[in-house]
Amino acid sequence: MFNQPSVSAAPAADLSRRALLGAGGLAAGALGLAASAAPTSAVSAPAKAPAAGATWFLRNVRLETGYEREGEEVVATRTELKTLKIDKGAIAAILPAGAAIPPGAVAHDAGGLLMLPSFRDMHIHLDKTFYGGPWQAPRKRKGGIAGQIKLEQKLLPELLPTLEPRAEALVALLQGYGTTFARSQCNVDPVIGTKHVEKLKAALDRHQPDFGYEIVAFPQHGFASIGLEQQMRQAVRAGAAYVGGIDPTTVDGGMERSVDLMMQVALDEKAGVDIHIHEPGESGAAAISRITDITARNPALKDRVTISHGFSLMSLDKPALTELARRMAAAGVSVASTVPFGGRVMPIPALQAAGVKVFTGTDSVIDHWSVFGSGDVLEKAKLACQLYGWSDEQAIGQALKIPTGGITPLSPTGEQQWPKAGDAADCVFVDAASSAEAVARLTPRQVVLHRGVVAAGGFKAARA
Length: 464
Fold this sequence. Notes:
hydrolase activity, acting on carbon-nitrogen (but not peptide) bonds, in cyclic amidines, eight-stranded parallel beta sheet, 2 domains, Urease, subunit C, domain 1, alpha/beta, 464 residues, Amidohydro_3, Metal-dep_hydrolase_composite
């Protein structure tokens, strides 16, 4: 199934140095890296990219510096051109636009593009995807999640031999859209054991240093209910940084037993927790509450526990949601939401108001669950603006924190807070007037940096 053009095309004209090199030496056509879908690159002939850890300068970088106001209303965003010094993967200095550069120094020109923090896809399944292969729509679901799990038992062994090149093709897609970090859910189950974790880690390690990652050991088929404890421990030792879980009541057969085992394994293995909770209503809320209580009692888990999806939060009344969100924030329990839309809407504004960190992710691009993913987490910020009525310059610009993991160039009151000297050189460059325009118009990503390495696109050389 891995010898036909992909259903999707990577979005950047000059992808990372890995983009055209799958694990099996696959050609661009096999990986679906079609140039016709690429945005305009920053320059027609990019200069040679700086090496990892190199010292170099970047001229004509446009940075946001504050808000323009009419009375109390924000009506525009101010920007200025700067020169950046990048050293050992970090922004070493922010200099005036015309600053002198040492003779002989490597210098590139951003051409006035706006620099934004690069994006983080905090919930994606890189290990089981049809991306890179022929079009394949999902089968009609029979038997709900249980039916999908049964299908996986047949499908995953068939996909295993091509897991690495498919995952790498998907990484190239993400990079072209400005994502330089992903937290990938990765199946651990009785059918494939820990092989997905091992193969995915090998694939992602080949993308160092142009892509960062974390792996979640995800017990899609059940955890406590099927006796998966030892394999989950092995998965962490094989490279997973997080212990996952699945709907404790509706899939794993018992909320307290399921949650307690997941949390205990994480504590024992010094890992974080990232659990899928799709189940709505009281059972899902009870699981989130129990996870929050255990986290609050164990400082080692603070800021290392994530509720993925968390659909039950949509069904809580305002007082119950406010109280649970307050406890989650105090314990450092975050939420990874795909910003679903439908009859009910995730209460992201209420969670953020309580101090809960809210991340977003692609979930799937094309697999046996869904084929509607684009790989562009900036879309999630735009969708959030539409869902929650964030329609002015300030609110749209602040929505950028959803795909960046919480970072915005300006604070809500307009103070410049990114970048600062010492920040990692994780950046995306767009031809836009402000963060707000980039979010609203999904402005094409022209150049993408991760730790100072060009992951997608390219700059032109500048005279020192």
